[in-house]
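Why predict the complex rather than its parts? Because the way molecules touch one another can change local conformation, and only a joint prediction can capture that. The input here totals 617 residues.
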Amino acid sequence: MLQIEDLSLSFGGVQAVDALSLTVPDGIITALIGPNGAGKTSVLNVINGFSRPQQGRVLHDGLDLLSLPPYRIIQRGITRSFQNVALFGGLSVIDNLIVGFDHRSQAGIMRDLVRTRAVRAHERTARRRAQEVLEFLGITAIARRRADELALGERKLVDLGRALVPHPTLVLLDEPAAGLAEAQKAWLSQVLSRIPGEFGAAVLVIDHDMRLVLGVSNRVAVMDFGRKIAEGTPNEVRTDPVVVSAYLGGGSAGAAHGH
Amino acid sequence: MAALLRRARPGTMARGGAGSPAAILIMLAAALVFPLLEGANVAVMGIATEGLTYGLVTLALNLLMGYGGQVSIGHGGLLAVGAYTTAILATRFALPFIVVLALAGAVTGVAGLLLGLPAGRLRSHYLAVATLGFGVAVPQIALNLGSLTGGFTGLIVPAEQLGSITLGNPVPLYYLALCILVASVLAVRSILSSPTGRRFMAVRDSEDTAPAMGINVGRTKVILFTTSAFFCGLAGYVFALNNAIVEPGSFSFSLSLFFFAAVIVGGMGSVGGSLLGAVLLVIVQHQAVSLGGYSEAILGVAVAVVLLAVPGGLAAVPRRLRGLVAGARLRHPATAGAASLREEPPGPPSPTGAPREG
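Output of the joint prediction:
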């Protein structure tokens, strides 16, 4: 379980996150929504160690994540995808998926060089695992393609795949549906809703597509101007007048859906 | 420079072209029979060994640039560290050649480690300047450490013996250089297809997000610089024996520039391309000796031409040719259908319905 307590993060004069408290329970999908600039990505960046908050704690199963450098976060079982899909462009799709799995290999460069039995075993396990995830995502056909040759829809799924391969317990997804066509979004929501069941992982997802987010999530927290303005089940949030006004005020019609 | 380098899109693992196993085997066969043709010609053998030596440094630099995404225009300095280590050990101690070779690699590796520490914090042209400083500083330091390095006159390297074979003789040295090069190529390929190699390439492709995948970027860069430097140290050993004298004047800035140019001309991210690029430029430089100071200009022109005409370097030429042939077929009405079928890779299953971007 991830508990964010009284988190504040500012950049210069901009208060990106303002005294936010949020719990991400195990085994379900939690959505974090809000208008553009509400501070959603900043929250992921703090969990991930990319941004250091001025105040607050981020407890993961009791350990404060803020004491860890970014590259240690994955060792806690926390993985993430990126809004701008920063794949490793020169690597094949399967190698992109394996990179996150490699932190499990204890071998240094010398053992990698001579390919000890353990290194070869790691390589086999990693490939098998990546193959499973490719099958789960329905993209086995592109396994050997270079990541920078892929179409956006494929890249989005590979980015999601990278977050699933390392046996995560918590997956942070930053706008997985951005830029996708309707048919692709339908497939994505199917995939997302199966993650807790098939991977035993909790999901914290950010997205602007209300229909998709409210459709797949069990819990929803709403942010505006760095603060949490509402929290509850998708149905509760959908009808919350505070949420509706935040979205209408913010110029997005998304939350009016369902009224 | 960063923008220019971005044109030279590095490859993943060798796929066709100069990096394919077939191409590498052909190059190896040619290298093996070469002394049978030219073994009697001492000058030519010296140049051939130089080609292998510079090929190894270029490979080491390509590991750093093409696979690790870091820049160095100071690899001549690393070669100098390896060569001086060899010369100092060979003049003062009677060590077996394999020990000297290993120490040349190890000492240069440590130099690379020190160079890699700031590299963890610097990017692109800042890193280029730092490595440039290193490359310029090494011969200066050697010049001033006269008691150890022989100062301006340098050190004469005694010919080492391996049983009854004198390693300093042109043909044995050539084959020794070839063995070291082949072993290094195998080692580099092994590293590249391991977790360590994937970390190098991940840092190259997305340094900002790599930590989210569990990669310690600073540590990865230090390992990368150390590894690259180790291979330069091995090359330094051969360099010392091949030149028979190690002096500051051998490691001018233009040598570092040469390795940089050889990587670009051969192809960023191509093992075979590194070797081809180095050998080609060695030949060009020896042809251009009579032109005096113009040889650096030739390097600059070669880099510019390659970046503009074939950004992938020599390694990409076969792929480009295949592309041209396929393009011609596509335009030809009779075969257009078949060609377009071949060109279309099997897409992802339709549920994703991914629209193909242009």
